[in-house]
Amino acid sequence: MTQAWSGLNSRALDALVLVTLTVAIWQGLYEYAGEAAITSPLATLGYASSLVKTSSFWTHAEATLAAFAYALAISIVLGVVFGLILGFRRFAGDVAEPILVALYTIPKVTLYPLILLIFGLGVSAKVAFGVIHGVIPIILFTLNAVKNINPVLIRTSRVMRLSPWQTVSTVLTPAVMPELITGMRVGFSLTMLGVLIGEMFASQRGLGFLIINGINMHNVPMTMAVILIVVLFAIAANGLLLAFDKRMHRT
Asked: What does pTM read for this prediction?
């Protein structure tokens, strides 16, 4: 109990130090560049608190969350399915893995004209851009999770004469689940990034649109406030997923 409490206090102290350092750097940049380039932390927080009380903000937030939900669901389904297929087909996985890694190193912005031609402007383009960011990491994590399954587990299931469904549900799923959760956590962040970038280029709604519109209109307070809201949401969501990820790896 004492050790757990000490660890909790240590993490809280680390978080406090990180937040303090971030705010100090932010304030220093504000003092250096001035209001024409960046707003102060206090002013940004005040603008963000008033922004979230407006209905127009939530209209844009709902558009982003809807596109993100679609993109994340597609990324997870495709990533897990293709990862499992490539993982169980060892030769195909060995061939596909370096190709997927090479594809992922391509700057995604260069693909945007092609996505616009295929999907046009609107939600479909945002979802597609989110998927191309998030699906490959999930495939790779799933593929490696399957490849790294202890062969003893498979042999044991055969000795026990388990059915294919029993093997999948009682042996394979628990074995690969920790890595799957890690892949989904990484895919979560990257899919969100893809959707926001998509909204900056091909949308009239969404938080990404608010950011790029604020930049174009030189509305620094709004731009900084929306970025702050997105960052806080991403940190909170990633923190929850990371805690769940750690729990899965301990079990």
From this structure: 0.82
